[in-house]
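Hi team,

As requested, here is the filled-out complex form for the cytidine-5'-triphosphate run. I kept the field names the same as last time so the parser does not choke. Let me know if anything looks off before we queue the next batch.

— J.
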Amino acid sequence: MLNGKKVVMGICGGIAAYKAADVVSRLKKQGAEVDVIMTRSAANFITPLTFQSLSGNHVVVDMFEKPVSWEIKHISLAKKADIFVIVSATADMIGKIANGIADDMLSTTVMATKAPVLIAPAMNTNMYENPIVQNNIDKLKKYGYLFTEPAYGRLACGDVGYGKLAAVDDIIDDISVILNDKKDYKGLTVMVTAGPTIEAIDPVRYITNHSSGKMGYAIAKCARNRGAEVILISGPTSLKPLRNVKVVNVLSNHDMYDAVMNNFDDCDIVVKAAAPADYRPLKYSSQKIKKDDDNLVLYLEKNIDILKELGERKGDKILVGFAAESQDLIKNAKDKVLKKNLDFIVANNIMSKDTGFKSDDNAVCIIDRDGGIDNIPRMSKIELADIILDKIKSLK
Ligand code: CTP
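And here is what came back:
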């Protein structure tokens, strides 16, 4: 959440300007205060009224317009900003900033701000790849300006290549990382496992479970935002890959075991939010099994319990597990903390309708080694991730 954070957004003239409306809307939903400055050409693509309605603030376009309050607008906005974001940034605006030109409201205010400046460029591929534009970008990076790099794709002009405005999710993600002043995980490496595993029966079929990976991804994201180096070992999920995180994609419990063990020595903290399959088919059929018989018996053998193995070599690392239970939540979870030698366990009641696997929310009990229980009410998985990270930090 970005409660009370002050974002000043600059919008330049390009077809991607309409996507800036989504950025403003998302920032407002997260509790940020947003002021918008548009260039004159941006106002040809999308009206200031759109941004005024979304931000709830007067939108500035003209440097010399009749002031709505008696303050020097470019200076007051420059000072007010916790972050300055330019979405979408044209080659022209990047060139102006890189070369110290301040000749309109937006370029003047950027010049006057001491806040971090995040630039999300959008332009035709040939323009983006032009060495003059690339030199300007490099120069700005050297001065500490930050970039959400444009994506590859089909541009409005029909060309295919780099230059498409980055996904709004990625822009919001970068803003959240920059504005997160809690960097209490700096210097720590956190390994998170997420999602299900799949255990192949034959080339077509497999065994798996309902895990969505959302809880693990939320923990990985929050740890990254709080300054940690994050290694995310992910089973197959439909979630968007996380940026600035080392991601290792795995399929089976066996793959997850290998990935976890290969990275274990490098981490200080392991959070095992994954739901690896407990059993795999005893025998993999290299040919598709035909439906010749009325009944099919599938023999399964137990998979390695990865977390239990980690518990045996825990040392001074912090080890956090999850417990998915459909009955006797507390008793079963308490047994798992001790059996797997964990610092604490986060216990889920998977029978609850509004929380659990596919939901964006969760309600859990956190159970310590000494039996202490914290009941955490229903909240978003992102909020819960922060609580879990606070709890881990209190043990370090
Ligand atoms: N876990 C693991 N490797 C497995 C199975 C589970 O590392 N093969 C981890 C999970 O990531 C989770 C914890 O162990 O952090 C508990 O998982 P859960 O499915 O609740 O319990 P199990 O130990 O598998 O026991 P049961 O299925 O009997 O409840």
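Two things worth flagging: The mean pLDDT is 94. The longest helix spans residues 381-395.

Thanks,
J.
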